[in-house]
Amino acid sequence: MFGYLLNRLWQSIVLLVIVSIIGFAVLNLIPGGPLSQFALTPGMTQEAMDRIAEQMGLNRPLPVQYLDWAWRLVQGDWGTSYRDGQPVLNVIGRHVFATLLLMGTSTAISIAIGTWIGIRGATHRYSLFDYTVTVGAMIALSIPTFWFGLVGIYIFSLKLGWLPAGNMYTIGDGSALNYLRHLIMPSVVLSLVNVAIWSRYMRTATLDVINQDFVKTARAKGLTERRVLMKHVVGNALIPMITLAGMQLPGLLGGALVTETVFTWPGMGRLFLDSLGYNDYPVVMGLLMFSAILVLIGNLIADLVVAAVDPRTRLD
Amino acid sequence: MTALAATSAPSAWWQSRGVRRFMRHRLAIVGLVMIAALTLACVLGPYLLPYDALYIDLRARFSPPLTGSHYLGTDPLGRDLAARLLIAGRISLLVGFFAMLLSTLIGTVIGVVAGYWGGWIGAALMRFVDAFLSFPSIFLLLALAALLEPNPLMITLIIALTSWMEVARIVEAEVRSLRERDFVLAGRMLGLRSMHIMFREILPNAVGPIIVAATLTVARAILLEAYISFLGYGIQPPLPSWGNMLNGAQQYLASAPWLAIIPGIAITMAVTSFNFIGDGLRDALDVRSDHF
Question: Taking chain A, what is the end-to-end CA distance rounded to the nearest angstrom?
């Protein structure tokens, strides 16, 4: 078990290093490079720019610059935002909660609905229900998230007036109910793709388990079909889904970015787009690295949970 | 793959098992018909419509669908939505198609090399794939699109640059399992060069999974283009694309909902088609699948 943990941790660190190299390469694509932040200062001269480049060490070889940049990243010095001069990590920190709230709610919805659809599809294989959700899932995967959001706003906000069209709460009304009303539409929109993916995988996972000997044994013992399903099938089918949840994280984060834009949700996605609009590259770079790190941590946690609940993974 | 190899000598290709299985797959046929109709409309449609995609008629601003010969209505500048939709379709489909070609090429080369060589080269390449998969692709795409010049060619390049990993993984797994087969050993004994064995002997056996992945990559690429153009960093106006037609649509949602609804339907139709076709191909080419 301990060896497995250590191995996974080591793999994550290797990935993190490669991720940071890709991030550094993107950083150097910025017109003018990291120096561009000073180019807009009034009264800036070429000599002054050269001096700053010298001071910042930008005339050193790239590998040295990379090591310096990465070392500062590790120490928590992610640079300062061009927009308000605040440390990048503080700026990101202010937007993390909104995104995690949205992603968490959406994941809960996807898991609840997707698991139900998947199990029902597997136990009623090739039924009308199974066929409908199979086709439905493929269509759901084809709908652009933002368009689904726009249609939702049109129907539920503009036509029916049931739900607010955007923002996380109404100013002056901080009640939980108010938050909830604002949360419903964006999280449902964000769930669309994941319900589709989750239900497909859950169907396959359930089918894998349902034909195994221990399920036959459970049936032979005379347990009711419902009990067999709940106690023996679902629990085992859910194990591979934990890994899947980790794998879906990048997609979920990307979806959150688009959803937040449509619903003016004050999360990391909105921050990313706003920062792009202001050419606030330190924040853009910070978010790029932050999201990748979040994904790596998510995958690591998923693997650890699987290792904890499934003794088979501990053997190797 | 096996399905194609099973074709007995005298029968024609359209009688092969793969083709028959594909045809039996009704959804795939629906997809094929839908994308053929859409492509045909985008290629020929603009010549048949009375308005040019860039013709501005300020007196006809915000006309709802079916106003006179503006079959799908007009946009805030009075430009004909149908004409713009079809021209945009050309751009979006072309970007999707070429991004698929390029990303499949990148993914195949990296997958073959990683799978055939294995060892530390293979491990390093696959860790590289994993690292790319750790970035939410929209974040990476937007950052690249904002930093580079957003013309259609560049958009195609960066979409390909962020969608080759799936193909690489599939090809790597396939090649790794084929590497130890006898025909590869025979090739080595004949003294064939590694390049020849990799791309001429092994790769043809992995064509099935590559075709399936490539089809699904078109769907993905069209979606990605729509996302970044919707957010304002993809194809730039006045050149229309399905994504950038939706870019300004949200502010007119109450007064002119068709501006948002119609391009979205076009995107969904195109993407659904490729997903249906990919699913049918997976059955027909006998590709093992994880979830569908």
Answer: 8
Minimal C-alpha gap between B78 and chain A (Å): 22
Q: Report ipTM (2 d.p.).
A: 0.85
Nearest to B144 among A26, A144, A201 (CB): A26
- A to B CB pairs, distance under 8 Å: 144
Name the CATH superfamily, with its identifier, for domain A92-309.
MetI-like (1.10.3720.10)
Q: Residue A200 and residue B272: Cβ atoms within 8 Å?
A: no
Q: What is the CATH number of domain B91-254+272-285?
A: 1.10.3720.10
pLDDT tens, residue by residue, B117-169: 888 998 899 999 999 988 888 988 998 888 888 889 999 999 999 999 999 99
d(CA B135, CA B141): 10
Q: Give contacts of B 121-160 with A, CB under 8 A.
A: 127-128, 130-140, 142-144, 146-148
Residue of A nearest to B254 (CA): A158
Domain boundary assignment for chain A: 2-74, 92-309
Which chain B residue is nearest to residue A147, measuring alpha carbons? B264
CA-based nearest residue in chain A for residue B228: A258
Contact residues, chain B, for A201 at CB < 8 Å? 290-291
Q: What does the pLDDT look like over A167-215, one tens digit per residue?
A: 777 777 777 787 788 888 999 999 999 899 999 889 988 888 888 888 8
Comparing CB atoms, the residue among A142, A250, A253 nearest residue B219 is A142
Q: Is A250 on the interface with B (CB under 8 A)?
A: yes
